[in-house]
Automatic annotation (TrEMBL):
PROSITE patterns: CBM2, FN3. GO terms for biological process: polysaccharide catabolic process. The keyword Hydrolase applies. Pfam families: CBM_2 (PF00553). InterPro entries: CBD2, CBM2/CBM3_carb-bd_dom_sf, CBM2_carb-bd_dom_sf, FN3_dom, FN3_sf, Ig-like_fold. The lineage of its organism: Bacteria, Bacillati, Actinomycetota, Actinomycetes, Micromonosporales. SUPFAM superfamilies: Carbohydrate-binding domain (SSF49384), Fibronectin type III (SSF49265). Residues 186-295 form the CBM2 domain. This is Uncharacterized protein. Residues 1-80, 88-183 form the Fibronectin type-III domain.
Length: 295
């Protein structure tokens, strides 16, 4: 995979090089490659056929400072880089799940392809970093067995050359729902979202964190904006599961990646952060989703 970009403008110190991070859709393993003061790089580590990868870049200066993360770019690799057909089908849309006597009934809108769609692969994602192919079907419906509460399902279209599309939106088991609070004389409005923030790794001066955002409503939340305030002096260097990510002081704002664009009813999406801190890595507060506070 070869990437090219426009050179960053130096600040107080000259540009020393660039840090390029990338991860595969529905995979929280983030890889980082450092290069010198160049504007192109070829990345081979962790790249495989039919993968959907998001790439982000940061400039670093000779004093050890970093720029903000540049805009991300997503690429679906072909089944073969020597085949005549290297164009993937379009992404399946509108994936929904419903209960059925046999398990979970899935349906989605069809994809298109320059040659022709031959089928659809249905995957189970464990909610962290592992996806497994469950079944391949020729149409736009499938029935699967019930899945664990933390897992979700998504679909990719396939063409005759073996190219795979980008992933559809993810759905969870329709049996998973938030408990209904008991009625009261004057019930307060329930938060539309809840958040679990967890440091999956922490060391002196750095951390890796995972944020699980739950939709507590009965309707999907699409193209969301998520915000919070760091409790310490953390600075995020890379993020995954997000489309755009900005930080101003302790205030953070994020928008979704393609595969996290829709939070299903009573479902979740997960984003990850890689960052540094100097005096405090205190837990963030003030989580919001589309401007509404989360519990």
């Amino acid at each position: 995979m070869t990437l090219a970009w426009s050179a960053a403008t130096p600040g107080s110190f000259p540009i020393a090089g660039y840090d390029i991070s990338h991860n595969r859709a529905f995979d929280d393993i983030m890889r980082l490659q450092k290069v010198g003061n160049v504007t192109t790089v070829t990345i081979t580590e962790g790249i495989r056929a039919t993968g959907n990868y998001s790439f982000r870049i940061m400039a670093r200066d000779t004093a050890g400072g970093w720029s903000t993360t540049g805009s991300s770019v997503s690429v679906v690799t072909p089944a073969s880089d020597t085949a005549a057909d290297q164009t993937p089908p379009s992404r399946p849309t509108g994936l929904v799940a419903a209960n059925s006597p046999e398990g979970i009934a899935l349906s989605w809108s069809p994809s298109t392809d320059d040659v022709g769609v031959t089928g659809y692969d249905v995957y189970v994602f464990d909610g962290l970093w592992y996806s497994a192919l469950y079944t391949t079907v020729s149409g736009t419906t499938a029935t699967v067995r019930p899945i664990p509460a933390m897992s979700s399902l998504y679909v990719r279209a396939r063409d005759a050359a073996g190219n795979l599309s980008a992933e559809s939106n993810a759905v969870r088991s329709p049996n998973v729902s938030s408990p209904t609070p008991p009625p009261s004389s004057s019930p307060p409005p329930a938060p539309i979202c809840s958040v679990v923030y967890r440091n999956s790794s922490q060391w002196n001066g750095g951390f890796v964190a995972e944020i699980q955002i739950r939709n507590n409503t009965g309707a999907p939340i699409e193209n969301w904006t998520f915000g919070f305030h760091f409790g310490g002096d953390q600075v995020v260097q890379n993020a995954w599961g997000t489309g755009t990510f900005t930080q101003a002081g302790r205030t953070v704002t994020a928008t979704p990646a393609t595969w996290t664009r829709v939070i299903p009813p009573n479902g979740t999406v997960t984003i990850g952060l890689l960052g540094r801190w100097t005096t405090s890595n205190a837990t963030p507060t003030g989580f919001t989703l589309n401007g509404s506070p989360c519990s």
